[in-house]
Amino acid sequence: MQKIVDFIKETFKTNEFIPLHEPRFIGNEKKYLNDCIDSTFVSSVGKYVDTFEKEFAKIVGSRYAIATVNGTAALHISLLLADVKKDDEVITQPLTFIATCNAISYIGAKPIFVDVDLDTMGLSPENLKDFLEQNCEIIENKCVNKTTGKTIKACVPMHTFGHPCKIDEIKEICDIWHITLVEDAAESLGSYYKDKHTGTFGKVGAFSFNGNKIITSGGGGVIVTDDETLAKRAKHITTTAKIPHLYEYVHDEIGYNYRLPNINAALLVAQLEQLEKFLASKRELAVKYKEFFTTNNMNFIIEPKDSKSNYWLQAVLLNDVNQRNEFLDFTNKNGVMTRPLWKLMNELEMFKDCQKTDLKNAKYLEERVVNIPSSVIS
Ligand SMILES: *Cc1c(COP(=O)(O)O)cnc(C)c1O
Fold first, then answer.
1. What does UniProt list as catalytic (predicted)?
2. How far away, in angstroms, is 284 Cα from ligand 1 center?
3. Is 213 a catalytic residue?
4. 378: confidence class by pLDDT, cuts 50, 70, 90
């Protein structure tokens, strides 16, 4: 264990505490922030939000991008765009950050948990197919859950730590079952599956720019889609559903104050300029970790087949829960921050009664995976 701590300290060239992931502001951040403040356009209107949306859409290869205050808001709106309503059901994975399930719950919909694959840590297409075949039927072009009588409107897979799940197979299954695919791509900016950017396979995709993500605006998020109608609707309901007018305030439905402020966008535009550099640094770190852990007979998690991962959070797979706890204890007591997986969603009080498949892979991973320091080394 001491050897691991030494290696990480050497890699990050420090003897101080090493956080799991810290942001790097080594580009035009201060310049754009100053410019933004000088312009007085610090709130929901301004050139940086517009620039960001254009640049982001270009980078991921989607037609439209709509910036939001955070990733949870982006997911919330994405689900509304997928026509998810109160009492509908939404399939997702038990191994995810709480935001995925919170967004589903804000609408009054209920999650159904389908197991993940061991190699991707994301939703398993085989398990999804089995669940649907055993529990659902299509009635009037809707996927009806025979157990509850409710409609399954959407499916939200997540690309865990930036490693893409088998999203093309998931999409195919969703299409057959009339389920709208919404991607939680919060962790996977810069990750590709079969050369296509994650978040662009579904009808809508959501990204996050929280402080710990690969690029950050402090807080921030974005919705991507190729559908012009949905893009317009996303912009409309994230800006209080106000009908554009020179001076009158008329709103045509209940909207949300979810627009990313220009001052956050100023930070984000500067961060986006450095994405390639950040990705290169993370990949280089992954190569170093892989070599070190392999020579020490430990399992470092690498990008799955057919994909290019952003290696946002680096991770090791330990032998069992005892070794995991030992690892967590030793590293955290010795100035190296490491973290276990999130407690599985189906085990949380709010979601413990939700329908689920056998979740043995998620459980296996929960007992063994640990995230290790992953910041960009500059
Ligand atoms: C970060 C994250 C989000 C969104 O989080 P915000 O903090 O609201 O930006 C959503 N889903 C997953 C899986 C995440 O990791």
1. 213
2. 25
3. yes
4. confident
